[in-house]
Input
Amino acid sequence: MNSRGEAMTNLHPFLPFLIAAILAAFTRGSLRSAIMLAAPLFGGYQVMQAESGTMVMLQVLDLELIIYRVDELSLLFGYLFHLGAFICILFALHLKDTLQHVAGLLYAGSAIGAVFAGDLFTLFVFWEVLGLTSAFLIWASRDERSFHAGLRYFLFQVLSGVLLLGGALWIWWTTGDISFNEIGLGSGASWLIFMAFGIKCGFPLLHNWITDGYPASTPTGTVFLCAFTTKAAIYAMARGFPGTEILIYIGAFMACYPIFFAVIENDLRKVLAYSMINQLGFMVVGIGIGSALALNGAVGHAFNDVLFKGLLFMSMGAVLYVTGRSKASDLGGLYRAMPITTTLCIIGAMTISAFPLFSAFVSKSMVMTALLDEGHWGIWMAMLFASAGVLEHAGIKIPYFAFFAHDQSIKAKEPPVNMLLAMAIAAVLCVAIGSYPAILYNILPYDAPYSPYDITHVLTQMQLLAFAILGVVFLHRTGRYPDEIPSVNLDAEWFFRRMFPAIYRGIKVVISVLGEMGGQAVRFTLGFFLDKLSRHHGPSGILARTWPTGSMVLWVMVLLFLYLILYYVE
Amino acid sequence: MQNGNNENIGWADNPVIRQRIRNVLYMVCGLLVVADFIVHRHVYMPLEKIPAFYALYGFAALVGVVILAKLLRKVVGRSEDYYEQQGGSDD
Output
């Protein structure tokens, strides 16, 4: 732990992005471009200089916040997010939209702030900024769909933030220690935090903000979105809950179920959103296993995923930007007009499919090997199944339907040069890390020597992929391959877009009917009593009559007589 | 393939080239299976002992995924404006 004095020479990594965002709001043209690109370059340089073990404290009332903490794990994500931010900013550089530029900068900066947060309250602050700024990247589409999708997206972000704050306060009250280290599932508070992270990791049934929100964002906004939120959540999960067994099963489910939806989804950016949950599944499984190799695999795969998923989202963003279309049923034949984009997309597709020499191969295999080492054979089979599924929807479907398939005679050209450059950087890194994995392995946080390139591994992976492609060819040739049809596939969002509103409307109807019935019952009962009262006490009622004194005396006599009898009986 | 402007079609739409690409795939698949019998690969679990296990599993998994997905489409598939009907999307 370094002294505060030395640590203060470090600028907090959020600041370059905050300053750039403020400046970007008041500048335009090439000056703004230069400022925006400088933020990740300057911040990245700072992080390269940062030493593991550095901490910066901030005293707020009687709370000692650790606003900046550097260790091996946060450094890996620090490098990654600066790299990701640079690529995303470059990709969005041609825009003139101040909102997107400012939101993008703050969003990337808050993700970086979150991974360097050393305590739960600091983490919460960046967690919330992350949610809010990213929602603006969806609203930036400025149409009705994105408005509603952005609201739904934001609701999940707020829910995650509230759970995190609740858990953090609870832990603070019970232990007095708010530092963010391994938490583990021991208490109610830890469950709250687990679910807060889980929402942003895309846990099943809580995943819809990804598949609903991301495709509604702008062509460039989606690229930002895919890089930061879920990866920050993977970081938080890896730090807070390594070796939590339930994550193995959750992760396996996450890896498997989206592939079915991805196969039949028509919107190619939504296919990628499903594909993202599938890849997150591999990372979550790795965190659940918790061995050094598995954790390295999880965070290493997160690193690679930002690059290859970013590349795929960029290529679809470029297609959307150029043609205004992102649906498989509207696309096809673009390879002639956009050969560079096509090539770069295919590199992304081969990477996500984990072909040898591409980056996913060297990170996903760590998780797979760890599964075998720990004897999780069933889960391993499921993940292998999911790997074949990835090849179908991300490896083949994305490039095939966008760039080949049926020639739709779409007028198109290559996207602006900044977009091509951003894609090219990502593509080069995918191949570089895959071919020379030491680039990645040297910055992985845990000590677990691993070599991905042995004959068994290469051979088995090639068999899996080649025969999966053969499966696609077989389905195509026999006419069994599903057509792309314009459609919506119901997923868990149906619950809150259809079922909950329907239940709400139902309850409203029931309440109004009950109210009506209750009102009638009250009116009837009240009427009955009023009727009785008026019958007896009304002007002509029996109790309103004037009674003769004689009859009263008679009744007194009867009473006295009865009393006498009772007296003697006793 | 139809092409509005001129007669020449792109390489990827040329049936001869398509067939060539498929032939390469068949050859690669064949070689990979042959290699399975030559190369001694590590076996971690009993199922892996099946000859060309990964090849069989890859093919079966992919075909399985697609067939199951087609069934899923029958259950969850709706018209494109599903959420716009009945009073628009709710939040």
In short: Chain B has two domains: 1-40, 42-78. The longest strand of chain B covers residues 77-78. The CA atoms of residues 8 and 66 of chain B lie 34 Å apart.
